[in-house]
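retry 2 of 3: previous attempt timed out while embedding iron/sulfur cluster. Reduced batch size to 1 and resubmitted. Inputs unchanged:
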Amino acid sequence: MAEPLLEVRDLCVDYAAPSGRVRAVDRVSLTVDRGEVLGLAGESGCGKSTLAQAVLRILPPPAVITGGHAWFEGQDLFALDEPALRKVRWKRLSMVFQSALDSLSPVLSLAEQIGDALRAHDFTGSTRARSRELLQLVDLDPLLVDAYPHQLSGGMRQRAGIALALALDPALVLLDEPTTALDVIVEHQILQRLLALKAERGFAMVFITHDLARMLQIADRVAILYAGRLVEVAPAQTLKRDARHPYTRGLLAAFPSVHGTGEPQGIGGMPPSLANPPRGCRFHPRCELAIDICRKEQPPLVQFGEKHFAACHVAAAHRL
Ligand code: SF4
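retry 2 succeeded.
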């Protein structure tokens, strides 16, 4: 079997808080294959953005990686020194942020900032020509090459952020809620363009969103995080028809289907405070199926089918 493009194993990320350390990502392991779209879903604060930033090693303080490994194209990302990491970051592994203003400089034109990224990785051709080409790639007018971010609409800025992330033909792009702030039509257009570019260029994507319905339309596999832990991972179609974790089922029911007639259902209660998470299964205070063991022991990830794992005592007990 081919080596995964990215392998994250037992990743832990802590935030230093006045009351002590708060674990935002707790022993999460996952893989991404070449050309694959892995969706990462869960409610706000579940650790999905923190996980992506940890892989890229751009975690803002006070967050720190406190355990685990991340191998990308065979390299141990957490062991690389800054110069070696800079060669990987952006060139092989890039990121699109929720707000393009987080990745685009407000004081540089698009040509200047795409040019900077290209030159930093020893690009030898015309950076202006390449910038125009990249803008066209994401359906932006190449004449916008001299525009500044504030002169663009939100959708145009996100497209420019994607152009920047694709500038050096990376093997993997991490997309952190790249279309959340956009209206549904622009969101749809950008997602379609991204999928077409992925098909043309063969890069893999880790797509982060809280919108599981949208995720199921574009991802090959989906990983569900809850309160910093991985609770289920499965091929998208499997998850759609056979989710095993009650939290995943709750997420699926929380979004209306485009073709369905049922009313969306919410998940009762709130995610726990990571400063003082519940013992055992962290979902137990919200789970209608909780039994005694759920309040005492953390459920391990158990295999339910091909590439399908879930961490639930009750689901495991009813496994065929
Ligand atoms: Fe619910 Fe128990 Fe499964 Fe957790 S382990 S999701 S509390 S049934």
